[in-house]
């Protein structure tokens, strides 16, 4: 896997996770005076993020086999957990760490096989 | 007989109404959340297959190279459009599933898509899936199963 492809895969997954979180926030907005604006901002940002994800994702399909590219969708739970750990300062349990280790190891194994 | 049927029908419909209280999935088999979760996994697999066929078809199209990585070229193919439509249907279907099933339960179960996509790529696209890749896919699936619950909780809190 080339460095460029790796970066694009990771960026697309970050965009997807970011988009999902934004949409979620837009659907369940905190009560505030500028409620409508907050909802519109979150939904707009969510759609923008998901558009970035989708375009990158389609572009990656052109270069790679499906069975090579799709496993990297497994990075999204990893990114969610890491984001929660960083942003919410949450402590993760051993199950989560084991899961992260398995996803990382599996991704490496997939990555070292030939892409096409 | 019509009378008995009418009573049975009415009773059933009343039962259905009672079951529609929040927290109880509808009793009709075609509205079963588990069935829709299975349908969701199949829809996701189909969407990915369409995208792959579309992207490969579009990669033959003659466009400037700077467009190639943006994915915009994919829209040349109707398969890509079909993939998007299936994705949207899958999204609506997913929202229905989440009405009845908590995210922390539904999300881990969609891991099966990982394996379904690999099998579908091998069966329908004729991709050769090396053993190393199979092992990687299974490891990722196991990892997602382990970390899906905290990930789902993280999504709700983030």
Brief overview:
The complex is a heterodimer of chains A (116) and B (158). Chain A has 116 residues and is mainly α.
Write the layout of secondary structure elements.
The complex is a heterodimer of chains A (116) and B (158).
Chain A: H1 3-27, H2 35-63, H3 66-69, H4 75-87, H5 94-112
Helix pairs in contact in A: 1-2, 1-4
Chain B: H1 2-19, H2 33-58, H3 65-68, H4 78-100, H5 103-109, H6 112-124, H7 131-157
Please provide a written account of the structure.
The complex is a heterodimer of chains A (116) and B (158). Chain A contains five helices and no strands. With 116 residues, chain A is an all-alpha fold. Chain A is flat, with a radius of gyration of 16 Å. Chain A starts with a helix and ends with a helix. Chain B is mostly helical. Helices cover 75% and strands 0% of the residues of chain B. Chain B has helices at 2-19, 33-58, 65-68, 78-100, 103-109, 112-124, 131-157. The longest helix of chain B is centred in the C-terminal third of the chain and has 27 residues, at 131-157. Chain B is globular. Mean pLDDT of chain B is 84; it is low at 6-20. Chains A and B meet through helix 1, helix 2, helix 3, helix 4 and helix 5 of A and helix 2, helix 6 and helix 7 of B.
Summarize the amount of helix of chain A as a percent range. over 70%
The averaged pLDDT of chain B comes out at 84
The helix-and-strand class of chain B reads mainly alpha
- Give the oligomeric state: heterodimer
Q: What is the domain tally of chain A? A: 1
Pair with the biggest interface: A-B, 55 and 55 residues
Low-confidence sequence ranges of chain B: 6-20
